[in-house]
Amino acid sequence: EVLFVESGGGLVQAGGSLRLSCPSHVFRYDEYTVGWFRQAPGKEREGIVCINKRERISWYNASVQGRFTISRDNAKNTVYLQMNSLKPEDTAVYYCAASGGGGTTYSYWGQGTQVTVSS
After folding, report:
1. How far apart are the first and last CA of the chain?
2. Which of 6, 71, 80, 119 is the most exposed place for a label (fewest CB within 10 A)?
3. How far apart are CA 74 and CA 85, in angstroms?
4. What's the confidence (pLDDT) of residue 7?
5. Which of 16, 11, 18 shows the shortest CA–CA distance to 36?
6. pLDDT of residue 104
7. Residue 104: which of 62, 30, 52 has the closest Cα?
8. Backbone angles phi and psi of 68, in degrees to 5
9. What are the beta bridge partners of residue 58?
């Protein structure tokens, strides 16, 4: 079941920036761990980063740390992924997901948003 609608994806040149948004009208994000994931063509889905209910951030992918930032706006119940200095290898479908178990298992997924970085 798709419970989130990510937005903010698009086509950008290498070196550019995008901010992805993941709002929810179903979950209170201050009660869940929310993570960002991506899946590039022909590759398995990989984790990027997550933020737990106490706003502790954990990185799944060290290669994007320093370029990507996760944040949460409790008033808007939205989690963001700010992506800077984008590279062609960042091209993928990006998903947000929620975990009630602290990030061990993500049971709730968005439909994904396409990010394409041109060289």
Report:
1. 35
2. 119
3. 27
4. 96
5. 18
6. 84
7. 52
8. -110, 150
9. 50
Residue 15 in tokens: 């070196």
The rounded distance, in Å, linking the Cα atoms of 89 and 101 is 30
Instruction: For residue 72, give Cα distances in angstroms to 11, 35, 43.
Output: 24, 11, 28
Which tokens in the block code for residue 101?
């178990």
Task: Identify the pLDDT of residue 101.
Answer: 81
Tell me if 95 sits within 8 A of 65, measured CB to CB: no
* CA–CA dist 69, 74 (Å, integer): 16
Quick check: helix, strand or coil at residue 112? coil
- The sign of the CA dihedral 28, 34, 39, 40 is positive
Q: What's the angle, vertex CA 63, arms to CA 81 and CA 12, rounded to 5? A: 50
**What pLDDT shows up at residue 4?**
82
10-residue averages of pLDDT along the chain (119 residues): 85 98 89 96 96 94 94 95 98 95 87 96
Tokens in use for 4? 């989130």
What's the confidence (pLDDT) of residue 1? 59
